[in-house]
Amino acid sequence: MKKELVLEIIQGRWSPYAFSQQPVKEFKIKAMFEAAGHAPSCFNEQPWMFVYTTCEDEAVFNDYLGFLADSNQIWAKNSWALIITLARTKFMHNGKPNRFALYDTGMAVANLSLQAMAFDIYIHQMGGFSVEKVREYFRLGDDVEPVSVMAAGFLGDGRELSPEILRKDEYRRPRKSVNDYTFKDKLYNPAF
Ligand SMILES: Cc1cc2nc3c(=O)[nH]c(=O)nc-3n(C[C@H](O)[C@H](O)[C@H](O)COP(=O)(O)O)c2cc1C
Known about the structure:
The protein is of the alpha+beta class and 192 residues long. The protein has helices at 8-11, 26-37, 58-65, 70-76, 101-118, 131-138, 163-167, 178-181, and strands at 48-54, 81-88, 122-126, 144-153.
């Protein structure tokens, strides 16, 4: 498939460091979460959960910021919203472990980040956060797994960021060629 055939919204998505705190209307945030809910999932379990706050709620926003690694706090503090992604790791219908819980949750996040792009809202996912702090804060049982934290908002000018961080936004991160990860007939046999 030619690269130009890939949907613009997919090609245009990236994870910025320079966010602005320009308010995002609630109906857009709601649409992003609704988009997440359209993802497929094993047994239609829909194991994802999201808990979010915006910088309007200063105390809660600061609590959420405190979950993040210092290297992420530095820039994520300028975002409009912080979203915590959780996954229920046991099936509702029989209580057995759901080994697809994180997979399905990732698909929901992909939907969310593309829906956000339709509004010119950017998502920057983070694995650099304290799982334990999130567990404690929300009193999570062992059937709920903190997966990621996302910063969300419109692009900013990055004025408050160090040159090192700002430089990261100057280029798009490189992608492997489709043949590096897609094979035909035999594993590692380039497909195209
Ligand atoms: C699960 C996950 C964890 C990530 N953790 C971090 C993080 O802690 N800090 C960070 O700055 N970026 C983080 N990222 C962003 C990635 O570095 C970024 O998506 C990747 O370099 C590709 O760049 P792009 O999203 O701009 O295309 C994470 C992304 C994912 C999906």
